[in-house]
Amino acid sequence: MTRGALLGAALVLSGAGALAEGSAYTPEEIAEYAADAGLVPAQLTTAGDAEYGEYLGGECTTCHQQSGDSNGIPAIVYLDDLTFRLAMYAYKAKTRENAVMQMTAGKFGDEEIAALAAYFTTLDVE
Question: Which domain holds residue 75?
């Protein structure tokens, strides 16, 4: 498991970090996590349009509950921006297992992933 994958797993468990102002990540760390995931740093730091993310996120909330309940499907409202993006890119690259998520993430480009991250990281658990 790469350092980026380990960081993502640790962040899921801790709920730590975000790429917004006051980020817990240095530019060097972000560059390293991007390289570990086969990405460029801009894919992890480009600002997303939360309104566009809300529009796109309707499909996500069919399975991922805003309440944070999992019922076997992981909650995404607890994820920080970096963890969300790393997960989406891992599904897109098919390095993270789940056929439904691989198909779903595979149809999103960088702008859409950034928008979804911007939207879901602003939500409060209902």
Answer: 3-120
